[in-house]
Amino acid sequence: MNTVDTIDARARGDFRAALAECYPRLWRYALVLTGNRTEAADLAQAACLRALEKSNLLLSDVPFDRWLFRLTHRVWLNELRSKAVRRGEGVVDVEDSGLAAETPGQEMTAYLRNVFSGILKLPEAQRSAVMLVYVEQCSYQEAADVLEVPIGTIMSRLASARTKLKETVAYEQGDSVW
Asked: What global pTM score does this model have?
């Protein structure tokens, strides 16, 4: 094995380690995109495979997780284009989603379940924006880059999502305000 092979092997190992570290967040993002545990696992695996295939395209100044989310979003869009995706099946309980606190009380669990259900009811574009900005803590610009839309579109999607979530959660909680 020559020096180039050693460097390539070490770089592949670092890439695989970064991929493994980011996988839970990737799966969670895939879950929000698909709304279904099985499809989320398939999407996350397809994204990992594509990431490994395209690892040479990762630029050093691009954060790995943002690149991976963008790649995942593209894989998902490709899947949407290639087949009719069934929606509304396999909704995940908030306890199984990885989004809830470690040991929430009954009230918090019920509240989070309502919020998560509300997020899953949003249109895909709004779900993606909510996930990237509020859960993954991407900046508006980073989310815009991942989704390949203008930053104003992200802001608009988030505003619409907040309005819908306030209405949904307030209605399900029996509250008049969120």
From this structure: 0.56
Tell me the average pLDDT of the chain.
76
Amino acid symbol at 177: V
Could you write out the three-class secondary structure of 116-165?
HHHHHHCCHHHHHHHHHHHHCCCCHHHHHHHHCCCHHHHHHHHHHHHHHH
- Residue-range domains of the chain with CATH: 1-90 (1.10.1740), 94-178 (1.10.10.10)
Neighbours of 91 (CB within 10 A): 14
Q: What is the spatial distance between Cα 69 and Cα 139, in angstroms, rounded to a whole number?
A: 13
In tens, the pLDDT along 61-94 reads 778 888 899 999 889 887 876 654 344 433 444 4
pLDDT band at 104 (very low <50, low <70, confident <90, very high): low
- Indicate the SS3 state at residue 104: coil
CA gap 166, 141 in Å, rounded? 24
Buried b (16+ CB within 10 A) or exposed e, 125-144: bbbbbbbbbeebebebebbb
Q: For residues 146 and 132, what is the distance between their CA atoms, to the nearest angstrom?
A: 9
Between 40-54, 89-103, 109-123, 127-141, the lowest mean confidence (pLDDT) is in 89-103
